Amino acid sequence: xxxxxxxxxxxxxxxxxxxxxxxxxxxxxxxxxxxxxxxxxxxxxxxxxxxxxxxxxxxxxxxxxxxxxxxxxxxxxxxxxxxxxxxxxxxxxxxxxxxxxxxxxxxxxxxxxxxxxxxxxxxxxxxxxxxxxxxxxxxxxxxxxxxxxxxxxxxxxxxxxxxxxxxxxxxxxxxxxxxxxxxxxxxxxxxxxxxxxxxxxxxxxxxxxxxxxxxxxxxxxxxxxxxxxxxxxxxxxxxxxxxxxxxxxxxxxxxxxxxxxxxxxxxxxxxxxxxxxxxxxxxxxxxxxxxxxxxxxxxxxxx
Length: 303
Prior knowledge:
By secondary structure, this protein is an all-alpha fold. Helices cover 69% and strands 0% of the residues. It contains 14 helices and no strands. Helix 5 (91-126) packs antiparallel against helix 6 and helix 7 (147-158) crosses helix 12. It is globular and about 75 Å long.
């Protein structure tokens, strides 16, 4: 009987959850992260589907319809659900198309800063004496400046355009990636598996990008979500100040910059793009919190 009971208990014992199952379970346990991811996905879908769902062309001027209030306010028009701007262009259509600019700028700037930061951080950790000290000295100097002030200076030097805005934000967001990559890589370089890879004759590129980098990705992914949120805010601030995407292109920061002179009289012109920037940054931050909980082994809940 004891042998049969042991056999039955062995058969009925559940399999331990895989890493992906643990990740999914921990991420879904964070309701705020799930909500943030849903909002972020919805914004991406709306941005991609803007040519289909936008009620009007974002550049079309409707003469005599300038600064119409939203349709739920007195004087509104059902043909323009969110009203029109100072030139008579549909605000809802410009918001949908503006999501393309703002999210694209944030994504491209995050990817560029992540690639550059990982490369410089890994090299600074591997060659720590001279090259590492030089990289960290420049990195500390950049981090000593307020990010927005540094972004304005770089944007003013490069000139206003979407490409220059991406370059500007990527440079401003580079220092956190360098610092985090270097700190994580220096810990990993002391591990036994790195010593074993060196003994087996692994070259420097293989040692850095194949052996060490995969073990540094978890904190870097979380950092990327935070940088993505910051990049959206930086793009909005640069556009608001007139150094980013230029009118008549529909970008949320540029829309805010155009609306600032009408804030006291027609406040809705600033409310809608400002709310879009706020919601996108909040959604990315909430998603990043969920990723941090799911990727940190100390925070995973095994049940």
